[in-house]
Specification:
heterodimer, A: alpha/beta, Rossmann fold, 8 strands, globular, B: alpha/beta, OB fold (Dihydrolipoamide Acetyltransferase, E2P), 3 domains, 7-stranded mixed β-sheet, 13 helices
């Protein structure tokens, strides 16, 4: 998929015709629901930000839902997940509670980090989600270390290490690729190419824009995937994970996707046209794609999907209420968690 | 139930904005994600997107209105099945239930009376952790610092299978300074790992391995090269526990030679104690004797927190008596009085403690009995031991190889202001490296480093002895 000219919307495959076999009805309904939870959650987060209830930086995942939902659907229980700061979708996909994520966004006691991490810094050991990291590229080295631990402990896990197209020019990414390949670490690097590292298009930032090939110098196989089609993400994800899990070392998946909103809440997104955004939304939306496939294939009725919509809206509204009702952290919390008691 | 659409905050600092224009008219239906209006902030014009589905029932704030406060209702959305009669006009003017405080807004603070009273005297410094280390000195052997460090790692690796050592040249080459000699033969390549020259990468990999349940001991060939990796040491290793509300402990040791060696000039001769000690979330250890290197490295490997373990190339070959019992562990956070005295307290760490001991001999010849405290741990600092000594001697000199500005001596001087002000008979004196990058020329290098003579002079000065 060429994107040399920087016209990002051209790069994502046109139309919604599935190119790999579709999962069965139950699976499709599940994937639809998972993606919708993220979409509605992020819309609600944007709203709460607008009300001043969420502060600081807030990076929304709207448009990219198929990537993390597809990847997580083909994960094994031993797998670990790590990403940078556009992380709300990853947490929800890993099974973290919407309430705890939203309450962290509002900086409340009920948040996953008890209000001390915020949007960019959330974790769940229970769900094998290792953050939530605010420094571009740092999660790639840490994820490689999680892969190292999987191999050392021989627990059969693979670390799903996500990064954006902006991170792929950081030096430590290649230091990590080198060690992962050298030591055959079980890591799948998922490059979420949403076309823009903040306001700079891939073509303006990267001397070569075929990001799936960035592991070539280290002999790491890579593949570009239509990240707007959850079934294609699943299929490629399953292959990449199997490769890493069976001792062949790392694999790179470049997910071609798109972010509808600005980089963060205060980004007016003047570096791209409204037409570009509208075109992707109208022709390639990952949720609309599954919805259309199910309706046209007679796999689900409007009523069934509407019931899911309603259910999802209930979960999200409940999380927003919880996030506003949960009290602010106790002032004594300022001093806790600096060091573990030895 | 109608839904009020509120004036949104579109940046972390926005309090008011201009509702530039409406993109939807009353009566139009709206889906989530639709752009409904344009708002101008102080930085940009942005679109407001709808969150809920419905029909735009009534516009409350007309397009073109300036200075609209954040959270003012700007329109009413009708949900499915509702019509305009559902709009409760009484509610429109009402302010939102809860107006969140915006940045920059004045918040009246109800100051409790107690807070206005003079601040109480500084609390006494926390007592250092208890230690039974002395009892182990009944049976000792003569070891170099290099051997003591190797033994500490080997003993901890025998004790805990999750401990592994990685770094440049640590395995087949046996360590650039031979500190890891013999570890590969005993523990094999799975646990003694040669890395490529890739400090940033393996420092971060170590953090991930620690999050993943292992206990990495990461060697930097010298601490100078850790500058390439300092983001992971601070942002990843030190802060993640706090940012995760206590979930993500990072039990890792970063170790390697720190400070000046000999004739390697500015980029290879730097003392990092104050750099790392500045950061909450890290422990910083910098011993002098081989026994303390061994006992503290064992404690560092067992510690559930990230530890910066600062060694010294010149010390590697020096020999000391080291307890033979593998249970000998020195707790982190406890200074040691290495020479008792009554006239002046001299606090130092690492190689400079040796120079201070030489200075103390010279001072004794002049009739001044110095009490020498080896910090051993920089953070958490054992302030209590220093304060107790100053209460006895009433005079304090600090000696270190770091630069003076914001150095360890500066910190100790500030601690004495807080904890021992009334006990000082002279201002605290600092002996530091010269405030310049390290020169190469032999004579200049000697001038740049703190020498025993300078410590002697400083001690005499605080004792008002010429």
């Amino acid at each position: 998929m060429e994107n040399q000219n920087g016209a990002a919307s051209e790069a994502v495959a046109e139309g919604s015709a599935p190119t790999v076999p579709l999962p069965d009805k139950d699976k499709l309904l599940y994937l639809y629901r998972e993606m919708l939870v993220i979409r509605r959650f992020e819309e609600k987060a944007g709203q709460l930000y607008g009300m001043g209830l969420i502060g600081g930086f807030c990076h929304l995942y709207i448009g990219q839902e198929a990537v993390v939902v597809g990847m997580t659907d083909v994960a094994e229980p031993a797998d670990t997940v790590i990403t940078a700061y556009r992380d709300h979708g990853h947490m929800l996909a890993c099974g973290m509670e919407a309430r705890g994520v939203m309450a962290e966004l509002t900086g409340r006691r009920g948040g996953y980090s008890r209000g001390k991490g915020g949007s960019m810094h959330m974790f769940s050991r229970e769900k094998n989600f290792f953050g939530g990291h605010g420094i571009v590229g740092s999660q790639v080295s840490i994820g490689t270390g999680l892969g190292f631990a999987h191999k050392y402990k021989e627990d059969g896990g693979v670390c799903h290490t996500y990064m954006g197209d902006g991170a792929v020019n950081q030096g430590q990414v290649y230091e990590s690729f080198n060690m992962a390949a050298l030591w055959k670490l079980p890591v799948v690097y998922v490059i979420e190419n949403n076309r823009y590292g903040m306001g700079t298009s891939v073509a303006r930032a990267s001397a070569t824009t075929d990001l799936a090939l960035r592991g070539q110098a280290y002999g790491i196989p890579g593949e570009a995937v239509n990240g707007m089609h959850v079934e294609e993400v699943r299929e490629a994800g399953a292959r990449a994970l199997a490769h890493a899990r069976s001792g062949n070392g790392p694999f790179i998946l470049e997910m071609l996707t798109y972010r509808y909103r600005g980089h963060s809440m205060s980004d007016p997104a003047k570096y791209r046209t409204k037409e570009e955004v509208s075109k992707v939304r109208e022709t390639q939306d990952p949720i609309e794609h599954v919805r259309k496939v199910m309706l046209e294939g007679g796999l689900a009725s409007e009523d069934e999907l509407k019931a899911i919509d309603k259910d999802v809206r209930g979960i999200v509204n409940d999380s927003a209420e919880f996030a506003q009702e949960s009290p602010e952290p106790d002032p004594a919390e300022l001093w806790t968690d600096v060091l573990v008691d030895a | 139930m109608t839904i009020q659409i509120l004036m949104p905050a579109l940046s972390p600092t926005m309090t008011h904005g201009t509702l530039a224009k409406w993109l939807k008219a009353e009566g139009e239906s709206i889906a989530p994600g639709d752009a409904i209006a344009e708002v101008e902030t102080d930085k940009a014009t942005m679109e407001v997107e709808a969150v809920d589905e419905g029909t735009l029932g009534k516009i409350l704030v007309a397009g073109g209105t300036e200075g609209v406060p954040v959270n003012t209702p700007i329109a009413v959305l009708l949900e499915e099945g509702e019509d305009a009669s559902a709009i409760d006009t009484g509610a429109q003017a009402a302010p939102p239930d809860e107006s969140p405080t915006m940045p920059g807004e004045e918040v009246p603070v109800d100051t409790p009376a107690a807070a206005r009273e003079p601040a109480p005297a500084c609390p006494a410094p926390e007592a250092p952790p208890p230690s039974d280390e002395d009892r182990f000195f009944a049976e000792t052997q003569r070891l170099t610092v290099r051997e003591a460090l190797r033994d500490a790692m080997a003993e901890e690796m025998r004790r805990d299978p999750t401990v592994f050592v990685m770094g440049e040249e640590v395995a087949e080459y046996q360590g650039a300074y031979k500190v890891t000699q013999g570890l590969l033969a005993e523990f094999g390549p799975k646990r003694v790992i040669d890395t490529p020259i890739t400090e940033h990468g393996f420092a971060g990999l170590g953090v991930g391995a620690a999050f993943g349940g292992l206990r990495p001991v990461v060697e930097f060939m010298t601490m100078n090269f850790a500058m390439q990796a300092i983001d992971h040491l601070i942002n990843s290793a030190a802060k993640t526990l706090y940012m995760s509300g206590g979930q993500m402990g990072c039990p890792i040791v970063y170790r390697g030679p720190n400070g000046a060696a000999a004739r390697v000039a500015a980029q290879h001769s730097q003392e990092y104690a104050s750099w790392y000690a500045h950061c909450p979330g890290l422990k910083v250890v910098s011993p002098w004797s081989a026994a303390d290197f061994k006992g503290l490295l064992k404690a560092a490997i067992r510690d559930p927190n990230p530890v910066m373990f600062l060694e010294n190339e010149i010390l590697y070959g020096q020999s000391f008596d080291v307890p033979t019992d593998p249970d000998f562990v020195v707790p982190i956070g406890r200074a040691k009085i290495v020479r008792p005295g009554t006239d002046v307290t001299i606090v130092s760490h690492s190689l400079t403690t040796g120079k201070t001991m030489m200075a103390a001999e010279t001072l004794a010849e002049a009739g001044i009995e110095a009490e020498v405290i080896d910090l051993r741990t920089i953070r958490p600092m054992d302030t209590a031991t220093i304060v107790a000594s100053v209460k006895k001697t009433n005079r304090l000199v600090t000696a270190e190889e770091g630069w003076p500005f914001a150095g360890i001596g500066s910190e100790i001087a500030a601690q004495m202001m807080e904890h021992a002000f009334d006990y000082l008979d002279a201002p605290v004196a600092r002996v530091c490296a010269a405030d310049v990058p390290m020169p190469y020329a032999a004579n200049l290098e000697q001038l740049a480093l703190p020498q025993p003579g300078a410590i002697v002079e400083a001690a005499k000065a605080v004792c008002y002895r010429a």
